[in-house]
Amino acid sequence: MSLTRVQQAEIDAQRRETAATRRVVASGLEERLYEAVPVLDHGFVRAIDYMGDDAAIVQAARVSYGRGTKAARDDRGLIRYLMRHWHSTPFEMCEIKLHVKLPIFVARQWIRHRTANVNEISARYSILDREIYVPAPEHLAAQSVANRQGRGAVLEGAEAERALAILRDDSTRAYGHYEELLNERDGAPIDPERTGLARELARMNLTLNTYTQWYWKTDLHNLLHFLRLRADAHAQYEIRVYADAIAALTQAWVPLAYEAFEDYRLNAAHISGPALEVVRRMLIGEQVTAETSGLSAGEWRELSTVLQTTASGRAE
Amino acid sequence: MSLTRVQQAEIDAQRRETAATRRVVASGLEERLYEAVPVLDHGFVRAIDYMGDDAAIVQAARVSYGRGTKAARDDRGLIRYLMRHWHSTPFEMCEIKLHVKLPIFVARQWIRHRTANVNEISARYSILDREIYVPAPEHLAAQSVANRQGRGAVLEGAEAERALAILRDDSTRAYGHYEELLNERDGAPIDPERTGLARELARMNLTLNTYTQWYWKTDLHNLLHFLRLRADAHAQYEIRVYADAIAALTQAWVPLAYEAFEDYRLNAAHISGPALEVVRRMLIGEQVTAETSGLSAGEWRELSTVLQTTASGRAE
Amino acid sequence: MSLTRVQQAEIDAQRRETAATRRVVASGLEERLYEAVPVLDHGFVRAIDYMGDDAAIVQAARVSYGRGTKAARDDRGLIRYLMRHWHSTPFEMCEIKLHVKLPIFVARQWIRHRTANVNEISARYSILDREIYVPAPEHLAAQSVANRQGRGAVLEGAEAERALAILRDDSTRAYGHYEELLNERDGAPIDPERTGLARELARMNLTLNTYTQWYWKTDLHNLLHFLRLRADAHAQYEIRVYADAIAALTQAWVPLAYEAFEDYRLNAAHISGPALEVVRRMLIGEQVTAETSGLSAGEWRELSTVLQTTASGRAE
Amino acid sequence: MSLTRVQQAEIDAQRRETAATRRVVASGLEERLYEAVPVLDHGFVRAIDYMGDDAAIVQAARVSYGRGTKAARDDRGLIRYLMRHWHSTPFEMCEIKLHVKLPIFVARQWIRHRTANVNEISARYSILDREIYVPAPEHLAAQSVANRQGRGAVLEGAEAERALAILRDDSTRAYGHYEELLNERDGAPIDPERTGLARELARMNLTLNTYTQWYWKTDLHNLLHFLRLRADAHAQYEIRVYADAIAALTQAWVPLAYEAFEDYRLNAAHISGPALEVVRRMLIGEQVTAETSGLSAGEWRELSTVLQTTASGRAE
Fold first, then answer.
1. Both D114 and D256 in a single domain?
2. Domain count along chain A
């Protein structure tokens, strides 16, 4: 992570300040507010602000006048019920605002989640920092042969070195030329005689692993949906680590909702009608095989993974 | 307004509690948090929670690390610039949550604003309160003859009395029958022998002036859009009074953004290309009339209102 | 259903007209275009327009230049893959526009689906038709005792008669008074001496079973989400019948997508992490009971229903 | 523009096919369907599908049963009324689907318009084409000195040559290395012994002027909003040319709505409350100057531009 001394001082200053509020306070998240959680080689996630806590979910579901006098045990039960039955609107009553530094190619995946508010640093107005993502050697994976969108084994030896050299050199050269095009380095003109290309044009010379930053704000329902897709094993590693960092903040913020999310989403499985039929046959003792299941090869494989059974339908 | 003693006690209890927070605090809105602002005969608006303040708009626009050290004067200038140039995303970084009690026919207009989170009390689960809107005599307006969607003169005498009697009697009878259908009054069965019609069916007997309640949460950009449409003179009186109450809370919350909103939205005018041409002709001294303007009658009338000129194009 | 002769003639005229288009044509839905499918006692659903077909889903997923030369068998496989893996954006590339006549209390549930475009007939400008929903006797259900939001046994005898009489009388009286307030009946003033109350006020005297109408337009992904929630057994009967009518139109429009939707959504089950653990234990031969399952009573009941096993965890 | 022979043949084949439909047909847009309109050096815009026409806006606004029997003159009047009074929902009843090839840095601006459906070609699955945007010399503008986000004079001579060389070389080298990382060129392995880096990683080596493609679908209301912002003189040239191409297609599709859009949006001005006060003073003959106007320097300049008056408030 690369915070300048000034940036870290600004963060520390803001962490020291407290004020009195009548609003509900989520003490677990207060603890971590503003702190930069490092992600990848230069990125971070910071929680900047939030609205609501576990009790606010319950309060909205009941459209209540006060905090309510119900026991915490009842809150947990209701939150689990709401999660299990896909009642999403009470979860929308909590909101969080994050400051994220992330590579542009990750930002392009992230932005597909449309139900969020975003303020990205503009490379039409500003000059992007000289910060570029280069994978750690253990994440330099080959293309999967089995899966068109997956990763295979980690590259090694000369091949790995060559790949890292390319990624490092091309982005460094591109960034250096970006500065030359702008005719600006460290806040000063390189050549006082030149004007420099317009910022909105010069930026096109940057590579997709250059870091950008944004403020990103969303409600808890949409945040959990984001986590379900992006903390998933099928998500690209480079976005998954952001999702993991945000998941930890979410757990600190709304522990009951997060627990329900783990049980009813993260660790849950969606089983199709035909696959359910197979499970029912297995439960009455039938030996179901890939062939007799009637499922496609892909679906049979996915079902076996979920049930942790062998290919013959018998548990290992 | 009709808060029960228990409800008012819950509100008071919540207003007394404060806690320390690291988040930004908007002192003007803290002052009014949870308080029920009366609207119409039984309705109210209560601010339940908020995220951000004027400085948070600036902070998001700059994607900054801390609160920033800029002077408040610069904040005001930037907020006005953002509002004038329709940069909406920084305003989306502030969020507010309201608890509203409102007649169903008002709720039906309100819900058309889709970019908001809503938890409405469900008449499938719960029994709606016996609270019904009946207009004050001074708001009992006749249908406008000029304007298909407008109100004309206030009804008076026997006609007004008859209208009020109908509104009062039909809704009261409908509500009484609603209880009879449910076989429940004041939380107890009316006739212990009967089951009562399903709540989800019985509710259809209610009239559209019955009050409902919801938690409504939106960001500042969408809130201001709501206020622009609903605090407008063309909006129906019964929703305008809610918009007015919310406008006052908004002003307490983000005074700089609200001031910019007044100048660049509420008191501004959108002037069409052809109408601008007319203004330009007037400014070089031409006497433009409805006939020579080339505008439709409606647009000419609207332009004259905006410019506060007489029909001949000369100022009064 | 209550179409006037003029309305039916307009529909027939539009059905007779055809024109040449270069766009993709979904012949199954063309067949039913504009036709009013009756729902409830006076309601209907009409497909007014559509964009795309099954092949358009595939074409968008592949971002292709033409219709593609792939076999229909491949299209089916890809559509099933997309549905199974929650790739929603290709389904968003199809769009449908419906004209719906529905009771106001149904419209209030429906409108919670925010990702849609809606044009509702405005009771500020127009006078609503004298059409009121009264349940058929077999749908006049008692409140469920077990389930706060459910229906129990059907009311019978005097109790049913009383309920129907109330629903019929109150809404009829309210509608009659609505006309009196407006001072307008069948397009003419009732009393030429009076002005009549403003339409925007008079409407509040109507009961929630009065019919309204709207044009409703949404994409296929959001339509299927709507169907999943509203064609479900837990949805209120009065909205479920609309969902059923729309499901039939959807099947005619995009038969492959609809088949995948049935397998992977309608007939599928979402099984929580703890419940999956129970299934795994059952599959290796353990006799799991409600007590030893570790699930809540509600979740155990739901799992048993899905697996079609008895309470003891043994298949029936 | 760079369509392969195969792609052009697919487009031609689809343009030749027509079928009968009962849907409304917009003949102006039918004419141009599927055709690739060239934009920038390798980009294009193609209209793939649409729903509705001018009459459909009117039909939705009236919630009508048929096409209606009103004269076209009335349709134009109603459409202009709806546009003038910001009644957006009838315009949402028309939908268009485009296929766009565009540089990544343009795609990143475009995607901020959230109310649209998007299917972008995935560089996790697929290999992006070797197509890179390099500005034409006349668009190689210097950074504006006056305006932090604007362009100044066009670069010339050696400076221009150097800038073009950098943009060309860096992107070409980055693309070549992208292929080397993938170990794939023209669909075949470069070195049959190597696996190649995962596609999802290799893509990060590309520069932001590499072209991507997507299917983009939106409703007419949101399309016009996009055009208002992106066809504007303040938008970056590289996105404005796309907006211009789409504007021409929109005019062919819904000529009446487009005409209203020009009058009430494109050529209109939004004048703030304080600026309106200045106009009113001018109209009664007062000589208003920047100093006596009470406006900020920026706002005074903007008002003068709109009114086409000199700085002294007198028309030129």
1. yes
2. 3
